[in-house]
Design a protein that fits this description.
- The strands form 3 sheets. The protein has a 7-stranded mixed sheet with strand order 2-8-7-6-5-3-4, sandwiched between helices.
- It has 2 domains: 4-48 and 300-390, Aspartate Aminotransferase, domain 1, CATH 3.90.1150.10; 50-292, Aspartate Aminotransferase, domain 2 (3-Layer(aba) Sandwich).
- It is built from 14 helices and 12 strands.
- The protein is of the alpha/beta class and 393 residues long.
- The longest helix has 18 residues, at 187-204.
- It binds pyridoxal-5'-phosphate (PLP).
- Residues 41, 105-107, 131, 175, 179, 213, 215, 240, 242, 248, 253 line the site of pyridoxal-5'-phosphate (PLP).
Length: 393
């Protein structure tokens, strides 16, 4: 009677959501201050001042009809122009407003881009561990997921990528700063990837595209995040303001097709067609306008950095192992037993809510989202210490 595949998707357990719901129930039972919920990546730092200022200015100066009405499907022309101008000046990259499509966040940016690119039989390479929704978006677009594992410290493994990218590969998704590891890929490894993709494109006789999934671009702790269109021509940037401006619930982001892409105009037409087919037209208009005035700004990253330092310092002093993250707000901790789910269950006894790595495509780790109040981390550390003792660390 219904679309069975969709019904199955809807009924699937989301491990992260389940932990979050468990945490809410537990908070009602024993008090919120006694539960240490590190499950969700919901920004804990307020949006920067420019966001409130622009909301107040727009709501105070524009007439309601003008403010809340439709824009064109790809977004308001002045907003698309502002995004293109920002990309040109911030990254020294050619970009034109005609190649910018405003979206409801990175999820929509990815879903649209994958639909725009995918033809029958196409494969899409994801670099694991990775954001679990890639699989959902790729399969819904009709593509096949191919995984390439990362190398030491979760950096790119060019040999694994060489094996994963083949004649059927339409695109590789790169997410840096990374969810779930917090790793930021450096220029030389990205140049290595770009060279590999150029060679593969030649062998294949058509371009292998690079999809840059960038919701965490501004959330970095003193390292540079190379701009992928500057390293590889056939790049589509899927950007979101969810994390950089702490606007996750407002659903706003954009797609920028690099003008250097093969068939850039036609690709943009396919992006527009995919947006139309999926019903992703005219992204939330108030926030299109707000974000156009806040480009390049970010929430207070120093708060996330303090959380990272407190958490990493504490956990490593208790004997846990992790790669200190350079960006985003996630810590990927090695599970002290091979079964990360069993470790999470044990952590739950101390009211520590962690996400096992299986849903990110690797085993033996847990993700800790440290976008929480600093005092939550301070209060959770003694619980982590007790947990470490159980494992004799
Ligand atoms: N890509 C990655 C790597 C993410 O971590 C997320 C959200 O957590 C998204 C995409 C989706 O972001 P948005 O909330 O902007 O749709």
């Amino acid at each position: 009677m219904f679309n069975e595949r969709m019904q199955r998707r809807g009924e699937e357990r989301s491990v992260i959501r389940e932990i979050f719901e468990y945490g809410n129930a537990r908070k009602r039972e024993i008090g919120a201050e006694n539960v240490f919920d590190f499950s969700l990546g919901n920004p804990s730092v307020s949006a920067p001042d420019c966001v409130q200022r622009e909301i107040a200015r727009l709501t105070g100066t524009m007439s309601a009809g003008k403010m809340h009405g439709y824009t064109s499907a790809a977004g308001a022309p002045e907003v698309r122009e502002a995004v293109a101008a920002y990309i040109r000046s911030a990254f020294g990259t050619p970009m034109s407003a005609e190649l910018v499509y405003m979206t409801c966040g990175a999820a929509a940016s990815l879903a649209i881009t994958l639909h725009a690119l995918c033809e029958s039989g196409d494969e899409f390479v994801v670099i694991t561990p990775c954001f679990p929704e890639y699989k959902v978006f790729i399969e819904q677009a009709g593509g096949k997921v191919v995984c390439a594992q990362t190398g030491p410290d979760f950096h790119l493994d060019l040999n694994a990528l060489d094996r994963a990218v083949g004649k059927r590969t339409k695109a590789v998704i790169v997410n840096s700063p990374n969810n779930p590891t917090g790793v930021v890929y450096g220029e030389s490894e990205l140049n290595g990837l770009a060279g590999l993709l150029r060679r593969k494109s030649e062998e294949k006789g058509s371009p292998v595209f690079l999809i840059a999934d960038e919701p965490y671009r501004e959330l970095v702790y003193g390292v540079a995040v190379p701009y992928l269109p500057n390293l590889y021509a056939n790049t589509v940037v899927c950007y979101s303001f969810s994390k950089s401006l702490s606007l996750a619930g407002e659903r706003i982001g954009y797609i920028a097709v690099s003008p250097a892409c093969a068939g850039a105009q036609s690709l943009f037409a396919a992006v527009s067609g995919a947006g139309r087919s999926l019903g992703y037209v005219c992204a939330p208009v108030l926030f299109q306008r707000v974000c156009a005035k806040c480009l390049g700004q970010s929430s207070d990253v120093s708060a996330y950095r303090e959380n990272r330092d407190l958490l990493c310092g504490g956990l490593t002093s208790f004997g846990f192992q992790c790669v200190p993250p350079d960006g985003a707000f996630y810590l990927f901790l090695k599970s002290p037993e091979p079964d990360a789910k069993a470790f999470c269950e044990r952590a739950k006894r101390y009211e520590l809510l962690l996400v096992p790595s299986d849903s990110f495509g690797v085993e033996g780790y847990v993700r800790i989202s440290y976008c929480v109040a600093k005092e939550t981390i301070a209060r959770a550390l003694p619980a982590f210490e007790k947990l470490s003792r159980e494992y004799g660390l």
